[in-house]
């Protein structure tokens, strides 16, 4: 029996890169092909004898019957292929946003369209098309996402950075790119580096929309977090003494920590680094530090950049966009606290370990321990990584007592081991 040529879509068979679900999909496809071929074999070979005799005298009826059977087979194959394609898309997870909804912005539809590679399948990566990167949780906030993607193409972007941050905090990260021009503010009065590290920042070079405070004086009167109390005041207060003058035994000094580093400390990463003072102190020691931050209640990113430092606008739920074993030092404070679930902190700690080189330092700086159990859980987690404890201090911070109740903090400098 001759073969049947089947053309679906543009006629080209496409296979995605191998995934965990590929075996199941292949089995289903094989089952579908076997079933349809058995059905075809039965249709062409199981006619009654009297029908065979009758068909000799009526060849046109026999041809019609065969044509109907072939059409039925083709419809079954087409339906199976569509079902398998939909199953694969759902399992792969990259097409979870329903673009057929009436309220989806046209720009979002255009961005999320798949684009075929001009030369077909890429031999190195195995992909056949480019798929836009967008956070998996965007499906849960599709109305806000569509609002974010509603704008005039090649025009000014809406003043909606707070909307974008809201989407990021809901897990819609990364966000789609947009074809509009972001709002600009003249950066007048910036100081040259390294003078810029400790000079006051002008209120006029910051976007204050979406924030409760409209100037730095207002911000310095508030406790924005445990690690940011008056942290935008670079002249008065304690911010300009951090890491060079200790207020208690939990405060480690920059020079002491750098002396512990084997092979030299050249580049670092500060997780949730407030206004960037850790990066500023390290810059004075010729160490380049990237500071991850979000603009929660304050313009952290713009302030850090105005100091001549490198801000990275990134939530802690996002995998760090760095290759393995690249940083000499990673610094984190209470911003490392990502919730009550132990597994959530584990995911974060494993990613920190991934980007820290062997022999590199992990500086846990005044991590707030809400209770003894949390301190023990964190200690057990750290011990699982086999880090060498170069410094380890548990105690109270002098300024942390609230209504007579003491607060316990953990500070440590840990060295990543060489693993075989």
UniProtKB/TrEMBL annotation:
Coiled coil segments of this chain: 70-97
Record-linked InterPro entries: Prob_Methyltransferase, Put_SAM_MeTrfase, SAM-dependent_MTases_sf
Keywords annotated in UniProt: Coiled coil, Glycoprotein, Membrane, Methyltransferase, Signal-anchor, Transferase, Transmembrane, Transmembrane helix
Gene3D superfamilies (alphabetical): Vaccinia Virus protein VP39
Statement: the UniProt record of this protein carries the keyword Transmembrane: yes
GO molecular function: methyltransferase activity
Subcellular location: Endomembrane system; Membrane
GO biological process, one term: methylation
A Pfam family reported for this protein in Swiss-Prot or TrEMBL: Methyltransf_29
Membrane topology: Single-pass membrane protein; Single-pass type II membrane protein
Presence of the UniProt keyword Cell membrane in the record: no
Spans through the membrane: 24-44
GO CC annotations on file: endomembrane system; membrane
Origin: domain of life: Eukaryota
Family: Belongs to the methyltransferase superfamily.
Record PANTHER family: OS06G0138600 PROTEIN, S-ADENOSYL-L-METHIONINE-DEPENDENT METHYLTRANSFERASE SUPERFAMILY PROTEIN-RELATED
Protein name: S-adenosyl-L-methionine-dependent methyltransferase
Organism in which the protein naturally occurs: Liquidambar formosana
